[in-house]
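Please fill in the sequence for the structure shown.

STRUCTURE ENCODING:
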């Protein structure tokens, strides 16, 4: 009999008819090559998150889940009626107020099961394929000694090749839902996070497969997180051990649990990109142990808490460590890194499921206090190098660390197997350190085997194909080249694109009022366009208020929102005098100057406790950020306002920028909603902005339908509440392009450089956030790309880079480059650094 191959497809790979067409084609090809195929799939994306909302927040989800599934059924052209038996079960579980752990497992497995029903109906039209029930194949271990909940939700199976079961399969092609398994009594259990990968790995072992292929939405494992380091390189060959270390140190592509089974049985594991099936990927195999010392990947894990324990008693005292660690055990805290000295032990705690709360830390300090002095550092990040014989690379690592001398490196640990080395630093240093190490250890070393193209290079091919909605500038090449002749360097803004975004936004029908965050782009024509089309304006400085008043004559002061932060008192006074709506985000203003606010109606900005966003500088909630009234102060502030005749008419929170998780705003609304009882006069809930756009080519856009759905549910529970939202980037990012002429080109070894006439003085986002912007040569738009280059500006600063490792056509001096999606936070963040005037701004004459 021919050999088995197990193919696993994740959530985003099974959520549209196009993806299922690709899957059918891939399966077909394997069968034609004489292989037998088992396809393991996840739930269509979004469903598992919804189901989790039921199990964690007891929010009813049947309607939302049904919508996702019926949409997919319609796309696939299959009868949704087939889902009814599964949906009946789902509804009966959803209707219950409390689910025990068994029932939770049952509910959480419904995403995979329902997707499976639709998948089979679709695939059977194209393939001779049969369904396998995971509960017949994956049976959880009877020897698991962990707590019952863990046995149910993150079950382990004792799996070995099973010739008898293999023989029971006579067909060439099967499919199975992932993530779920059965226990010995036939009840549903789950395989935990990344569970479908584990299902596929188990099945590969059981069937004695020749290969396991994990199909996902990235090309494979990269040498760093491409979203912060776009020139991260694809790793072509990895040993299982290295891959496990990478997964454990923060790499997101594979879950460590799925590697062990295939490692133990020597089954090669291939990672492939469903969006580009023909492209190369990463292969894990036993033979891939590197020959010479190398670092293969550098990853960051954020939200690490450090505990430093100091005591002279530990010196030569038997059992001291045991006593200390026992306390952690009793509090259920799992220790990650440990470093010890004669009188100090420092350990790190991973905050995986938000278990490290202030209360837990208080308890920990108290329990440890008889033994030692305790100091806690929150908001640290671990930067981990994974590789092979890393110690041999100390001469390259040390100089990088020395440039961080003024920053604190809290702990350094090295594993005894020499496969990883970790530095724990303050969260705001982690990205910088990772980037510097990546540059020296991976990018500068051109001799390294096993490294493929960079993410930026790979994504170039994908963007040209996958950008389904053509950008506005593609149709206006000649006019833009004309404009650049007299005006470059210049930003060009396209108002119809803004109009398109406004119309998208208006699909969020749960929101009563939109306020455009004018700091994203305060060009007068853009402000006027917003006002003319029913979008109000949000400002953060008196200058922005003036700009709005000038650009929008006749605007009512009350339609302007003022949300400053640490601004001088007189700015609040001036705004109140004008009748502008003021939002206050610091209790001390109210406590120190109650007279200023007496008799006025204000909105309070609260800190919902955790931020989100594309970069830590733009996360604007959580203790690490300077914004908002912390939860502990809300009640005293409420009392104070009541005593001093300050009316609180609404509550506001803004979690950050570039957020693609559609549940963010309903979560904020829930938090603000939970505070409403303290503020009887409050009728407005402002959930802030931060709506992300497709910025990186690998991103999926924000799901506005889901966002609206969640906010609608919130409104249904809070009658008479008006919802406000303040998007900035979402409205204007796509409308702008930056045009600049090429000044010079240069080669340094294999590294090409294309210099243009303006740089970080016009667009600082790449230098500041590592932001990725598409860059094309507008003069040579139809030419094939020939080489890879960094696009740089003329500023005297190494950070003056606009794009790293970009595939470009042959580029000549005076060609015009276009940098896309620069309508938000471009011109408004420009400077005169080096006394170079930044690019001017032009409205595209349409
Ligand atoms: C910056 C800002 C926004 C807009 O953020 P975007 O990411 O551009 O949507 C909204 N509200 C407040 C208070 C802000 O500071």
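FILLED IN BY: designer on duty
SEQUENCE:
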């Amino acid at each position: 009999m021919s050999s088995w191959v197990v193919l696993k497809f994740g959530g985003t790979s099974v959520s549209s008819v196009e993806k299922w067409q690709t899957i059918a084609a891939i399966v077909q090809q394997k069968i034609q090559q004489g292989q037998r195929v088992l396809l393991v799939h996840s739930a269509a994306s979004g469903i598992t998150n919804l189901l989790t909302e039921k199990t964690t927040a007891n929010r009813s989800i049947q309607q939302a889940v049904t919508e996702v599934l019926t949409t997919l059924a319609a796309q696939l052209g299959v009868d949704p009626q087939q889902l009814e038996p599964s949906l009946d079960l789902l509804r009966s579980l959803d209707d219950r107020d409390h689910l025990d752990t068994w029932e939770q497992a049952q509910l959480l497995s419904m995403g995979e099961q329902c997707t499976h029903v639709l998948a089979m109906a679709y695939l059977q039209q194209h393939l001779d394929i049969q369904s396998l029930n995971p509960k017949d194949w994956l049976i959880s271990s009877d020897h698991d000694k962990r707590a019952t909940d863990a046995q149910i939700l993150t079950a382990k199976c004792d799996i070995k090749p099973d010739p008898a079961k293999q023989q029971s399969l006579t067909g060439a092609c099967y499919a199975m839902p992932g993530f779920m398994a059965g226990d010995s009594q036939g009840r549903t259990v789950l395989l935990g996070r990344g569970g479908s990968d584990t299902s596929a790995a188990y099945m590969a072992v059981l069937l004695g497969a020749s290969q396991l292929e994990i199909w996902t939405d990235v090309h494979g494992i990269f040498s760093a997180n491409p979203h912060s380091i776009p020139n991260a390189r694809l790793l072509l060959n990895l040993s299982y051990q290295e891959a496990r270390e990478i997964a454990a140190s923060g790499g997101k592509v594979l879950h460590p649990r799925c590697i062990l089974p295939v490692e133990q049985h020597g089954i090669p594991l291939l990672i492939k990109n469903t969006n580009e099936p023909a492209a190369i990927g990463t292969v894990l195999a036993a033979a891939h142990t590197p020959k010479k010392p190398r670092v293969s990947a550098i990853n960051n894990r954020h939200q690490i808490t450090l505990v430093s324990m100091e005591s002279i008693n530990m010196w030569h005292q038997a059992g001291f460590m045991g006593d200390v660690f026992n306390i952690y055990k009793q509090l259920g805290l799992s220790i990650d890194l440990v470093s010890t000295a004669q009188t100090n032990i420092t350990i790190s705690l991973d905050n995986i499921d938000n278990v490290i709360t202030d209360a837990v830390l208080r308890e920990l300090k108290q329990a440890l206090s008889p033994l030692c002095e305790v100091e806690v550092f929150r908001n640290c990040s671990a930067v981990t190098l994974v590789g092979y014989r890393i110690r041999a690379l100390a001469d390259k690592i040390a100089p990088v660390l020395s440039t961080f001398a003024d920053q604190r490196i809290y702990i350094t640990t090295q594993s005894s197997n020499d496969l990883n080395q970790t530095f724990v630093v303050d969260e705001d240093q982690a990205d910088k350190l990772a980037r510097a190490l990546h540059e020296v250890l991976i990018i500068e070393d051109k001799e390294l085997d096993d490294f493929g193209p960079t993410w930026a290079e790979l994504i170039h091919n994908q963007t040209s194909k996958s950008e389904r909605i053509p950008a506005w500038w593609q149709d206006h090449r000649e006019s833009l080249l004309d404009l650049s002749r007299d005006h470059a360097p210049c930003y060009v803004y396209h108002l119809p694109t803004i109009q398109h975004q406004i119309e998208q936004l208006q699909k969020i029908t749960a929101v009563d009022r939109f306020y455009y965050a004018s700091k994203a782009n305060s060009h007068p024509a853009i402000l006027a366009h917003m006002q003319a089309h029913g979008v109000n304006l949000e400002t953060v400085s008196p200058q922005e208020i003036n700009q709005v008043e000038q650009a929008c004559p006749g605007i009512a002061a009350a339609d302007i929102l003022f949300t400053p932060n640490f601004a001088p008192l007189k700015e609040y006074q001036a705004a109140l005098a004008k009748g502008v709506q003021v939002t206050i985000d610091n209790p001390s203003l109210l406590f120190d100057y109650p007279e200023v606010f007496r008799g006025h109606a204000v909105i309070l900005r609260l800190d919902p406790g955790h931020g989100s966003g594309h970069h830590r500088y733009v996360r604007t909630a959580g203790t690490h950020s300077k914004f908002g009234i912390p939860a502990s102060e809300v009640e005293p502030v409420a009392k104070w306002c009541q005593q001093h005749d300050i009316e609180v008419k609404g509550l506001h929170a803004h979690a950050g920028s570039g957020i693609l998780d559609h549940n963010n705003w309903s979560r904020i609304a829930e938090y603000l909603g939970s505070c409403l009882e303290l503020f009887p006069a409050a009728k407005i809930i402002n959930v802030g902005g931060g709506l992300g756009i497709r910025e990186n080519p690998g991103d999926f856009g924000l799901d506005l339908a889901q966002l609206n759905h969640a906010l609608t549910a919130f409104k249904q529970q809070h009658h008479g509440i008006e919802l406000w939202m303040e998007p900035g980037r979402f409205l204007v990012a796509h409308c702008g392009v930056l045009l600049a002429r090429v000044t010079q080109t240069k080669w340094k070894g294999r590294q090409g450089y294309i210099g243009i006439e303006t740089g970080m003085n016009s667009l600082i986002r790449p230098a500041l956030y590592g932001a990725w912007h598409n860059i094309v040569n507008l003069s040579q738009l139809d030419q094939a790309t020939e080489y890879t280059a960094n696009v740089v500006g003329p500023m005297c600063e190494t950070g003056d880079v606009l794009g790293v490792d970009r595939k470009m056509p042959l580029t000549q001096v005076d060609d015009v480059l276009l940098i896309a999606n620069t309508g938000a936070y471009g011109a408004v963040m420009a400077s005169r650094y080096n006394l170079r005037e930044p690019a001017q701004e032009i409205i595209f004459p349409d």
